Amino acid sequence: MTASKSYPRSTVTMVPTCLKRAMVLLVAFGMMAHCQRMEEDLVAEETDILEAQALDSPAVAAYWTTVGGTYIIRMSVGRCGVWVVNIYYSVFYRSNTYDSPKSLGDAWLGVPNDKLLKIRQVSVGYSTVWAINQYYGVYYREGITASKPRGDKWVKLSDNTKIKWITVTQKGHVWGLSSSQKVMYREGASNTNIAGTEWKTVSGVLLDTITAGKSGVWGLNYGLTRKVWYREGTYGDPETNTVGSKWTDVQGVFNYICAGDDKVYGANYTSEIFYRNGMTAASPVGSNWGQTETGVNGLYHVAYVKDVLWAIDYSYTVRAKVF
After folding, report:
1. For 11, phi and psi rounded to 5 degrees?
2. pLDDT tens for each residue of 188-211
């Protein structure tokens, strides 16, 4: 009979423990590398799109005011001022634009980022600013006031619903698009209850872009056609039945669309800017699209508030036109 070998207890337990730690480290490094690749891919995607569009873009007319900015790719305007996002996912606020809709501001001020978030898009409301990070997490800016227009910190919604695009009205009503292009509405969200309670799906269309304001909820469908849709019952941003009733197909094909206080603006694939004529409470979809008398091409992203049309040109620079 052969005697069995015995080992010190510490030797027997040390090997599995070391292996577990090594596996945890490998998984962690793998996740970090994967996240870094995702972030780099997103930056490359934005860069490729904008540089491709810039190749043939006509010059922007000189009589637009150049507001400036470095590598700006997203912009939103509202009572909380003019906010932009650059290609490096940094957020900036335009000084002296809080509650001053006709002001073009003085300088771009970085928004403190306590969570080191990478922000893809912002939407400016009456009392806060909503944001989407690079992984489609949803945040809002807490503590925005006249004396502190950049606010205090970003607050993440408690649920983990992934939202790829977000828009907020000046009454605090929030709409978004899921990662599968479904239209989402934030139940209970308002200026007095910023976060609301939960996301609800609004069926009927799949959209690639959505915008909401006093002129209603508008969107561009997912795919190559980029047709325009309007949500019936949302004109005026009503307090009751805020979600509306049905989607209406509106003539027009645009690359980008923006619902302002009293107008809806769209930019087409050749960078011409149009606005919707004849919009009233009785006829919320209006009558036809009229081209802006700006004499301008080379603009791909527009935002409108109180007789000021903001835009980003193909050199990643912000411009503004006061009517």
Report:
1. -70, -40
2. 999 999 999 999 999 999 999 999
